[in-house]
């Protein structure tokens, strides 16, 4: 076996189309565009949708808990939550027992968005061209990659 077969050249390794990071990045851009189109009728952005998903799963969460779920720090998350509160989708309140902790809960308007958003996951599955089991395997592989990279 030639060295070339087992060890790609530097030129080959540095090709854009050979980069896992670029494949993930460009797929993410495409996915965000599709989500943007799907979320526009609801009047929410993709990051707002993610926050809503977390709160629809379990309402009444701390900002730090939401940040942990979404892999966002509070400096990124707080302005997002403030905009969502101003839009009337959620409410933020400091704990009386510990004012460092801010709790977030859905408003009635935020809860009502859930029924409008229920169609979005299946729309995205159809747009992907993948079968549901393929989506599950891809999601599992990507989560495994993320977890490995964060170690």
Automatic annotation (TrEMBL):
PROSITE patterns for this protein: HTH_MARR_2
Bilayer-crossing regions: none
Pfam families linked: Staph_reg_Sar_Rot
Gene3D superfamilies: Winged helix-like DNA-binding domain superfamily/Winged helix DNA-binding domain
Residue span(s) of domain HTH marR-type: 17-147
Main location: cytoplasm
Keyword terms of this UniProt record: Cytoplasm, DNA-binding, Transcription, Transcription regulation
Protein location: Cytoplasm
PANTHER family the record matches: ORGANIC HYDROPEROXIDE RESISTANCE TRANSCRIPTIONAL REGULATOR (PTHR33164:SF5), TRANSCRIPTIONAL REGULATOR, MARR FAMILY (PTHR33164)
Protein name, as recorded: MarR family transcriptional regulator
Lineage of origin: Bacteria, Pseudomonadati, Pseudomonadota, Betaproteobacteria, Neisseriales
């Amino acid at each position: 076996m030639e060295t070339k077969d087992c060890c790609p050249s530097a030129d080959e390794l540095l090709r854009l189309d050979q980069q896992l990071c670029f494949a993930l990045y460009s797929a993410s851009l495409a996915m965000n565009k599709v989500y943007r189109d799907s979320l526009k009728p609801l009047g929410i952005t993709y990051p707002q949708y993610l926050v809503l998903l977390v709160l629809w799963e379990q309402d009444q969460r701390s900002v730090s808990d939401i940040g942990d779920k979404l892999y966002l720090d509070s400096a990124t998350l707080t302005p997002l939550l403030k905009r969502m509160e101003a839009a009337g989708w959620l409410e933020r309140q400091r704990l009386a027992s510990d004012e460092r902790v801010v709790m977030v809960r859905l408003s009635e308007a935020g809860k009502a968005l859930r029924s409008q958003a229920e169609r979005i996951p299946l729309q995205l599955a159809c747009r992907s061209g993948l079968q549901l089991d393929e989506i599950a395997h891809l999601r599992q592989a990507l989560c495994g990659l993320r977890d490995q990279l964060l170690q």
